[in-house]
Write a structure and sequence with these properties.
There is one protein chain. This protein has one helix and 59 strands. Strand 39 (445-446) and strand 40 form a beta hairpin.
């Protein structure tokens, strides 16, 4: 567990104000499609799809009797056959009927070909086998119902292919039909010019220790890949796992992982399917494109090849397991919905940590995004539970709306600096309240037309970026959400709805970005919200909010680590935070804030107790200097300038 993960777990026990609202662990046996209500807006998200591929008893390693097997012994460039169903000729061992075949020895040059009946199952038991082939592949199934490659217990096996790929033979191990790898032994496979292991139907892995080095994709299942066990290590010039099926057949096009250990180093995507990807268990460690650090200085979308961690052309679900991703491109990417159940997920990304072209749903678990450009991006983002921790160089959590995902929310990739000849507007210069249209000071929107009076989205009249899209909804109803962002911490081109949980925001230090940014409206009805950052682009709760918010704008910039304490009129500490970056604004919302009550703000002093990203709960504060007071008004928020 990382230090940040340990801190997060320890701190959760002290979150007395959190409201954890979960929708349950996703089932791997039943599809779950639900509608999450978001303040009047319904967001439909998909649960974990059930596996479309089944396992039978024969797919798992089974005890066998050598007396019941045809025995094949390789020696140099020949093979001795003892039994029926196999023959050696011209450097090729051909197997022509169903049954079990026990293989051992070293084949210096040659291959195995399975050419049996269409309904036959052939079991190849590798018991100390080494095969080298200068051709296109070392093991080919031309025809059969299923080939089972069983790695015999306590044996080491090896396949090396040095030849070039052919049009119909694009892998070192190539199966025309179903292929299963199982057992308790090991297999080391190296190929210099093509895929490692490929099935034109379904590839199943239920056991064994498998090490694959391939010039192109590591493991390929054209129709499906199902991993139910084993210890896999894959180094590939293409994708680590690849499924290319993209037709309408609902029983095909899945990569489904429910158990096992996978370590993947891929030059392209770690795991990629044209349709669904599901991780329902196991331990995955994925590095794609050399990792997040390789993204520095490279332009996104330079070519069609990508270097994402998990990539799905339809739905992407991580319902359980331990997943660690270091990706040059997006860590999690789906054209459909991204659903997070109860995994432990640690991410470093050169682009988006989690990206969906439709909906992102986080129900629980631990989601640690340690490096990203944008942390979480989707048309809608719904967080109902779990521990979410985001570090980003741009927006932390972004609901982008119905626009191209590469479009910036500021014009021309605007980096937050002001245009030449303009100065950054200071929120303290305009003491706007919610009655002025639901926006503070500059940049107030006319909510009826979606137009801006002064600033508009992007901060400057006529200089805004994306249009308002009210179907873009960012909803937080439970869990713990921490964001450290250099863009907007929370950003929705439509609605921003907070009804539960604890939200801790260390916002930007640069102009043109804010702690909160919303295109339509922001409704706060529950939970705890505390955020610090720039006073630029200050956007605050609107009239639909039922929970009060206090906003403190400092007359000068405050140093990182300066303790800020909010207390009630009796001196009880309501919140204490030592922001991780320089700041000029503090936003605090809690059910403890009541209309007519006076709150005191102090700076300095020391706090005792556990903290998470600078935020303390149940803290004892000693010392400090009073900076100002605020009396909570009837408006959704009350804003005051303090020293």
């Amino acid at each position: 567990m990382t230090n940040r993960s340990a801190r997060l777990h320890a701190f959760l026990a002290l979150l007395l104000c959190s409201s954890f609202v979960g929708t349950g662990v996703l089932s791997g046996c039943q599809a779950d499609t639900g509608e999450q209500s978001s303040g009047g807006t319904k967001v439909t998200v998909s649960g974990a799809p059930s596996p479309t591929v089944s396992l039978s008893e024969e797919d798992s390693a089974a005890a066998y009797s050598a007396d019941d097997c045809t025995k094949i012994t390789f020696q140099d460039s020949s093979a001795a056959v003892d039994g029926e169903g196999a023959a050696w000729k011209d450097g090729v061992l051909t197997i022509t009927k169903a049954g079990s075949y026990l293989l051992s020895g070293t084949l210096g040059e040659g291959k195995i070909s399975v050419d049996a009946g269409k309904e036959d199952t052939v079991r190849l038991i590798f018991s100390g086998v080494s095969i080298t082939s200068s051709g296109a592949c070392a093991l080919q199934t031309v025809k059969c119902e299923k080939t089972i490659l069983q790695l015999d217990e306590d044996t080491a096996n090896q396949i090396t292919v040095t030849g070039s790929a052919e049009e119909e033979l694009s892998a070192a191990v190539f199966a025309t039909d179903d292929l299963t790898i199982t057992g308790q032994g090991s297999l080391t496979l190296k190929t210099s010019a093509q895929n490692g292991i490929q099935s034109k139907d379904t590839l199943r892995i239920t056991g064994g220790t498998l090490s694959v080095e391939s010039a192109d994709h590591g493991l390929v299942g054209k129709e499906n890949i199902y991993i139910a066990g084993g210890d896999l290590s894959i180094t590939s010039g293409g994708d680590g796992l690849h499924c290319s099926y993209d037709k309408d057949d609902e029983d095909k096009g899945q990569i489904y992982i429910e158990n096992g250990t996978l370590t993947i180093q891929a030059q392209q995507d770690g795991i990629q399917s044209k349709k669904d990807v599901t991780v329902a268990g196991g331990t995955l460690q994925i590095t794609s494109g050399g990792g997040a650090e390789k993204a520095a200085g490279s332009a996104s979308g330079e070519d069609e090849s990508t270097a994402k961690g998990l990539k799905a052309g339809a739905a992407l679900t991580v319902s359980a397991g331990t997943v660690t991703i270091d990706a040059k491109d997006d860590a999690l990417h789906a054209d459909g919905a991204v659903t997070i159940g109860e995994p432990t997920l640690t991410i470093r990304s050169g682009d988006d940590g989690i990206h969906s072209d439709s909906d992102v749903l986080i129900q629980g678990g631990s989601v640690m995004i340690e490096q990203s450009k944008e942390g979480i991006e989707g048309h809608t983002v719904t967080i109902s539970g779990g521990e979410v921790d985001v570090t980003s160089s741009d927006d932390g959590i972004n609901c982008s709306g119905k626009t191209d995902s590469t479009t910036s929310d500021t014009p021309g990739g605007f980096d937050g600096s002001m245009p030449e000849g303009m100065t950054s507007p200071d929120a303290s210069a305009a003491e706007g309240s919610a009655s002025e249209g639901g926006r503070s000071g500059f940049g107030r929107r006319d909510m009826g037309s979606g137009k801006t009076d002064i600033g508009g989205r992007g901060g400057f009249g006529g200089f805004g970026g994306m249009e308002v899209d009210e179907t873009a909804v960012l909803t937080i109803s439970g869990g713990t959400v921490c964001v450290n962002a250099q863009g907007d911490a929370l950003d929705s081109n439509g609605r921003l709805l907070l009804s539960g949980g604890t939200v801790i925001l260390n916002g930007t230090t640069r102009g043109g970005n804010g702690i909160l940014d919303h295109g339509s409206d922001m409704v706060v009805s529950g939970g705890v919200l505390i955020g610090a950052g720039s006073s630029d682009m200050l956007e605050l709760p609107d009239s639909g909010s039922t929970q009060k918010t206090a906003v403190f704008v400092f007359s000068s910039e405050q140093k990182a680590g300066t303790l800020v304490t909010v207390s009630d009129s009796k001196g009880q500490v309501l919140a204490a935070m030592a922001p991780e970056k320089t700041f000029r604004c503090l936003i605090f919302s809690s059910s403890q804030l009541k209309e007519g009550e006076t709150c005191h703000l102090s700076t300095g002093g020391t706090a005792t107790g556990s903290s998470l990203h600078g935020y303390y709960t149940s803290a004892a504060v000693d010392g400090g200097t009073e900076a100002g007071t605020v009396t909570i008004s009837s408006d959704p928020y009350t804003k005051v300038t303090v020293s």
